[in-house]
Amino acid sequence: MLKILEDLILLAKERKKNPVKDSYTNRLLESSTLAKEKVLEEINELIEAVEKDSNKIHEAADVFYHLIMYLEKNEIDVEDVMKELENRRK
């Protein structure tokens, strides 16, 4: 199941190197403002969905997607984030 997240991370890295014209993913990877706005928007939508007990899975997926794009845009490796989380377990 985590393969899907790995694939999404690889997609972000690939699209950053080889942009696809008119791609929403590339718009996020090229615009710091858009990427930041979408992460904030999607987190707020997830909070609202949880509070209303509706559409939570869809909104959570949006958060994952937009956060991965935001991290890639800002050259934050997900692998480094995972290492930080691992270090916190100790």
Short description, anyone?
This protein has 90 residues and is an all-alpha fold. Helix content is 81%, strand content 0%.
Write the layout of secondary structure elements.
Layout: H1 2-17, H2 24-30, H3 32-52, H4 56-73, H5 78-88
Structure description:
81% of the residues lie in helices and 0% in strands. It is mainly alpha-helical and 90 residues long. The chain has one domain (2-84): Orthogonal Bundle (Helix Hairpins), CATH 1.10.287.1080. Helix 2 (24-30) packs across helix 3 (32-52), helix 2 (24-30) packs across helix 4 (56-73) and helix 3 (32-52) packs antiparallel against helix 4 (56-73). The protein is globular. The model has no long low-confidence stretch (mean pLDDT 96).
Which features characterize this protein?
single chain, 90 residues, mainly alpha, Helix Hairpins, 5 helices, 81% helix, 0% strand
Which CATH top level class fits? Mainly Alpha
The CATH topology turns out to be Helix Hairpins
Portion in helices: over 70%
The structure class reads: mainly alpha
| Overall spatial form | globular
Q: Total number of β-strand segments?
A: 0
CATH architecture: Orthogonal Bundle
Share of β-strand residues? under 5%
The helix/strand series, from N terminus to C terminus, equals HHHHH
Number of helices: 5
Radius of gyration: 14 Å
CATH superfamily descriptor = MazG-like
Oligomer classification = single chain
How many distinct folded domains? 1
Compute the average pLDDT: 96
